[in-house]
Design a protein that fits this description.
Elements lengths: L2 H7 L2 H13 L21 E3 L6 H12 L2 H8 L3 H17 L9 E4 L5 H8 L5 E5 L7 E3 L12 E6 L8 H11 E11 L11 E3 L3 H6 L3 E11 L2 E9 L9
Parallel strand pairs: 2-3, 2-5, 3-4, 5-6
Antiparallel strand pairs: 1-7, 6-9, 8-9
Helix pairs in contact: 5-6
């Protein structure tokens, strides 16, 4: 007699009990990494938002914004020139302060459709590229800012205004320091006074956590900006590694 037919001969309560025991003992083939714990910093001013049961869920949540056809149309049409001009002013000021140069090899992190990259090229930084989860050729290639697709010591300059989208802020910063050349400059635009959008993965309340995470860099300056909902510019410069001289 087949097992399925045998179950039919048992009283209903007993059948349900056996069914539950059989399936509860089956190995769980779907495992999701736990939501990362809130990082511990001396200031307590960086909080990871709850609700991300897996990295795959986090990525899909970010893609819901990046692939939104209405948003992409706005980014590439009515929003394009306005944002390019604003970014160009930011970059021109950084050039005046000798933090960015025409010969700099530059990266924009989380560049969406490439407005920042276009702005860099307009101010004379021709060797510029962006990364995002969704590529937008020729300005933006595919890349995850938690695991940049570049070799160590690649860039002279890195810019990002998507720090709030990092699920693992320490990894986000570590990848910047890894891919920056010694003396390379990183510029972050972050929100301290207002809260970012619903796609943000963390909330930053001061620059202290950034200063703790950029272990291999020195703080250059902090200033207030008006950057599309982001109010603070923080600039770091990667330290040179001084090798001991052989005697």
């Amino acid at each position: 007699m087949k097992i399925s037919n045998y179950f039919l001969l048992l009283p209903l309560p007993l059948t349900l009990i056996i069914f539950f025991l059989v399936f509860s003992l089956q190995p769980n083939t779907v495992t999701n990494p736990p939501t990362p714990k809130n990082p511990t910093y001396s200031s307590g001013d960086l909080k990871i938002r709850p609700g991300y049961g897996s990295y795959e869920f986090y990525i899909q949540h970010q893609l819901n914004k990046t692939l939104n056809p209405k948003l992409r149309k706005i980014w590439t049409t009515s929003d394009w020139e306005r944002k390019v001009r604003v970014f160009a002013k930011f970059f021109q000021l950084l050039k005046q302060r000798q933090l960015l140069h025409n010969h700099s090899k530059a990266l924009s992190i989380g560049a969406r459709v490439g407005q920042e990259v276009e702005a860099l090229r307009r101010v004379g930084v021709s060797d510029s590229v962006g990364i995002d989860l969704v590529p937008c050729p020729p300005l933006v290639i595919k890349g995850d800012f938690h695991n940049q697709p570049f070799d160590n010591d690649t860039f002279d300059f890195e810019f990002s205004n998507v720090f709030d989208h990092a699920l693992y802020p320490q990894k986000f910063v570590a990848e910047i320091e890894r891919t920056l050349k010694p003396d390379g400059v990183c510029v972050l635009h972050v929100a301290l006074s207002g809260r970012p959008d619903k796609y943000s993965a963390n909330d930053l309340f001061s620059v202290k956590p950034l200063m703790e995470m950029f272990k291999g860099s020195k703080l250059v300056h902090i200033r207030k900006v008006d950057g599309f909902g982001l109010d603070t510019e923080v600039v770091f410069q990667k330290k040179k590694i001084i090798k001991p001289s052989s005697s």
